[in-house]
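Supplementary Text 2. Reproducibility record for the structural model of the 242-residue chain.

All settings were left at their defaults, and a single model was retained for analysis rather than an ensemble. We include the record here because the model underlies the residue-level annotations in Supplementary Table 4.
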Amino acid sequence: LTFVRIVLVSGGMALVLFLAKTLLSSMAPFTLWGALVGTSANTLGSWHDINILAGIVLFAGLLYASEHDSSRTTRTLGMLGTFLGLFVLVMGRFFDVLAVVAVLSFVYALGVFFFERHASRMRTIIAFSALGVLTLFIAFGSAWIGTQLPTRLVINELEVRPSWRGTFAVGQRVFSGDGSLVFGTGPNSFAEEWGKYKPSEINSTVFWGADFTSGIGSVPTSLVTTGALGLLAWVFVAAGFL
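Retained model, structure tokens:
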């Protein structure tokens, strides 16, 4: 469970900072002295990105808390991660993130049921089945839930980002030019590369002057800015979860 613990603690810290900035105060420490501007600004990326992280923390937290031989401290840490991730998911209510969490929860519950079916694992089966049902309820009841939440917890943000085609067009130009295939162009350099290599048809839209700091998602952006090493890092993360 070492990998799960690392994900739970590091992801939980990012969520705590986001919630502190959004709910408690706009003081300099919570906004990283002006680096996080806007209600959905966070250390990971977009509002959608932080919800993906919340889904991962939620799943990891419940996994950690439901281990039958875990200590009280371990279960407490897991439950904190579970509630923290669920809280952010309720705020965001992104259908795709909630659907993925639901599917993974049901698959995990079925896997435990068929391959580890004994009394000590029934708690895990029940917990992940309940999580699947709960996340589906949030996904399909998103509109109603939004009307019940306090105003401060409702974040409505129009998210505009480059398409898959635009992201890979920039990456192709970067790697055929002065960019390093191994190291990319450097962290946080996507906006500069977008300005130089964005598709020409963007200039006929209202977003011709937008400086996009990332592409269609975190992984494709990493491929441009951190090259093969960045992609390899993501592969290790995915392999760890599998």
